[in-house]
Amino acid sequence: MFDYHDPVLLKESVAGLKIGSGGVYVDLTFGGGGHSREILKQMDAAAKLYGFDQDEDVLKNVPDDDRFVFVRGNFQYIKRFLSYYNISGVDGILADLGVSSHHFDAADRGFSFRFDAPLDMRMNRAAGASAASVVNTYSYEQLASLFRLYGEIKNAGKLAAKICELREGAPLTTTFQLRDVAKECTSPKTENQYLAKVFQAIRLEVNDEMAVLQRMLQNSLEVLKSGGRFSVISYHSLEDRLVKNFFKSGNIEGKLQKDFFGNVEAPLEVVNRKVIVPDEEEVARNPRARSAKLRVAEKK
Length: 300
Prior knowledge:
This protein has helices at about 10-15, 35-40, 80-85, 100-105, 130-135, 140-150, 155-165, 175-185, 190-205, 210-225, 235-250, 280-285, and strands spanning about 25, 50-55, 70, 90-95, 225-235, 255-260, 265, 270, 295-300. A hairpin with a 5-residue loop joins β6 (about 255-260) and β7. By secondary structure, it is of the alpha/beta class.
């Protein structure tokens, strides 16, 4: 039942929440339920855990536990959904920003270049435009920009031009069609890394992930109680930079605000000054954890 996803930095991220008696906690990325089950193990009978996920596939993983409430929704709306349950403040929030192993391994979801599937990549298949729409309707400038920004691809212009050229004959509708186009823009030596960046860039765009992350961080800060903990696992530099800036300053830009006397005013205090990464044993067991970075902060 719980083979959906191998939870990354499980002990470290949950320990960062500093779970106490009767607390209210939130797992913003429920997925396979691994982090939630560990949180439940450490909670007492009076505590409550809310698990968020917008993907209908995760419903089979929901634990049968009276202390757990599943919320099917995008985590950027944490404040709105919690208010529905009359929750105004929480003691801990955990978010694992990585794409679930389930999404990469489910051939029909279109997240992976390992399987020939429709170009979809939507976390919520009932909402928004698919990857095929992005690939076939975005202008050369839009494609080059997203590959450069979200994929950090150096020859983004070349890839965008190649896509625009080929789609004139017929739309690109499958993962293998996109894969084959991208392979023409890189060498066999760097092929897998290049393809991963291409698919990442499109996935980020399809799900508007960076804007969603920004709204999630801000809304989470608003519902976190004083002394509450915020534990976030990120997987690529763009996400990690946003989280780092937000934890340091309380804003996405990382701009420190000062009071009249020149004292720094920041709503959060960073708990782990040095970013936490998986050890060699975890990476060997779960290679997808190798790029994970955990940051923990406490609300003042």
